[in-house]
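Appendix C. Worked example: Aminopeptidase P N-terminal domain-containing protein
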Amino acid sequence: MLGVFRVPRMVRLLKLSIISRNFITKPVIQPTHTTHPHLLKEGELMPFVTVSEFEMRRKTLSQQIRESASAKGFTNHIVILPSASKAFMSGKIPYVFRQNSDFLYFTGCFEPDSVLLIHVTKSGHQSYLCVPPVDPHNELWEGAKFEPALAQAYFGVDEGHTTSAICVLLERILKNTCSYCIWYDITQLQTKLSKKLQSVVVSLGAKNVINPLPIIHGMRVKKSDSEIELMKKTCTIGANSLKHTISISKPGIEEFRLWTEMEYQSKLNGAQFLAYPPVVAGGNRANTIHYIYNNNSVQDGELILMDAGSDYFGYSSDITRTWPINGVFTNPQKTLYEALLDVQLQLIRQVSNYDNLADLYSLMVKLLGKNLLSLGFFKSVGAKELNRKVSQYCPHHVSHFLGMDVHDVPNLPRSYRYEKDVIMTVEPGVYVPSSDDGAPKDFRGIGIRIEDDVLVSESGPIVLTGGCPKSVNELEVLVKH
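Step 2, the predicted output written as structure tokens:
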């Protein structure tokens, strides 16, 4: 037997309502309206996001697959989206779990080692959520999990199964079907779950396996109204937490102390964890772009560069500020900082006038080159040589999309033409190592980056991380007081 749970749609919606209101009274793997009414309204699987929105996402994915050029010649499609698997530091000591973003986007489910299957036909689609089999011994240690019947009703899918039944389930779905295509990312990390799924794909004898991520990421880059609210929330948490972290600065403070404060404030304000290992780099260490050792102290007179963000229900913020640890910019520090801030402010004003990140980068090179020239960085050089030299002082891109992933989403090129309702970072930097004999002496050893998260809206750019100060005067006042 498959352990199949099939419920007519009207009955399923009624059952979902009853379950969400009355039956989920004990903690499961994730918050629910009943257990966490301060976080979730009735009908929401995540803050602001209802079960009906997740259903609409699955419907939209099915429509786009059906209309895809890759779908020609096939009448049936099976989309396989695995969740993240639990990972372990050593033995039975787990890392903090973070759900796979693609799986979460279509389910709202935070269960590890689970799988979403979507069967797409000419006339519609059916969704199947497979969760790990209930293990009483495991629940004794880790708490209650979603069993198939509860998962089917709570997450609004058509059927619920255990992951152990995937092979039999697929055989049933594809019975008497000759023309079908599998949509599955075979490049995924080789976890126990992904290896199992790859063996399933092989056992099906599918000759056509297509990566669904280009379609999925094309959907994810444009944010719904509920996602924009989630992003506003995580950006507010990140900005306020970094603002507080700046305020405790003092000469001699350890970088890891600032890291700890940022994480503490983020969690205190509702984030589950930081979005990524933060960069907390004092002095010349700021010229190492992804310095994450954070194990030195910051000396009097040095700048500190901190790149950090919060993760709130799977949505990330990404902010960078650079400030004087003693509350006073030196003249060279202030001059270089304001030159970079001028570039960032101009870029933010222009994001709605551009439609791709590659062109925005070209504008950054032009603006930063002009400002660095005025500070004596380059002697007379041509345009091409100037571009090369600017990239020497800012070797990273000026922007990336932001959402469920910090670099959201990886399958879209820089040339992707964006429209409204996308969220992006604007993060120019200037890095002058102390060993750079070609740079003006006063600026050597200074590394600066200024980064905000910006919503491209119908009315223009909206800075979501504006709660964290960045002007020279604001930063000095914040540290001093």
